[in-house]
Amino acid sequence: MSHSISPSIHRAAFAALGLPHTYEAWDLAGDAALEAAFQALRRGDIEGANVTAPHKQKSLELSDSIASSAKGVGAANVLRREPVEKNRSEALISAHNTDVDALAQEISIASPVRFTALVLGAGGAALAAVVALKRLGFSAVGVTTRSFVSPAASSRTARFRELGAVPIAYPDASSERDFRAWIARTDLLVQATSAGTKSAADPSSGEALAALIPWELLRPSAIAFDLVYNPRMTPFLRRAEARGLTTVGGLGMLVRQAALSIKLWTGITPPLNVLFAAAAAAEALA
Fold first, then answer.
1. Which of the following is catalytic: 56, 71, 198, 263?
2. How many domains does the chain contain in total?
3. Fewer beta carbons under 10 A from the terminal one: N or C of the chain?
4. How many of the other CB atoms lie within 10 Å of CB of 200?
5. Is position 137 within any domain?
6. What tens digit of pLDDT does each residue of 139-170 get?
7. Is there a single domain that holds both residue 130 and residue 221?
């Protein structure tokens, strides 16, 4: 979590709203740490939380109620402590998802053409991307990741099919025909993995993922969207720019989902200009 600029964004928002709250980044290693954080939320040690990979789907299991925003995706990125009920010593926790709305807002600004999209990834961010794309009216949404060696036989593809996406075999030397066909007709290419992040366990993951894409097949009007926000220029976006494509990074989505999270916790919408300014300042120092 050392790469996160979320604390700077949320603290600026709370200050602008005149609220006494603070926001901290917790690095939770494993399910036991996540369960301990849930207990802290139930006790009231903390009032709310954001959840990031790899805990977005496990958080649904640990929550007491699931809002439609999270249920529709199958992943949560916001936890809210509900008022303590009578005869209960601890509060209940509700799970929400603001990734979809934030991503839909960013895509609606960036992409006027909404026919075919291809999502790279299979985690909570990829699920949110598929829901956002279908909501915006993309007629065909494909998805692929390393585990999709044989999409027809993979249990991991079931949820994506339910959401209206088409699982595509991950490209390798023996199976890349479908992937190349999708690339050739893609209007929006969404990178929804952690590859290329500043704190990635494998520093070469961003380059490896970018190298898989046959950039020469993408039409000049295509848009490349990387949900990674730190660094701002990832290997994926660098290759896209070299191809002459319009590129979008993940900073805008981060800011918008933060604003939506704060509204869930406080009932107040923070000023986006303040959040964007705080994000830019924090990014410059990261």
1. 56
2. 2
3. N
4. 15
5. yes
6. 999 999 887 766 555 667 888 999 999 999 88
7. yes
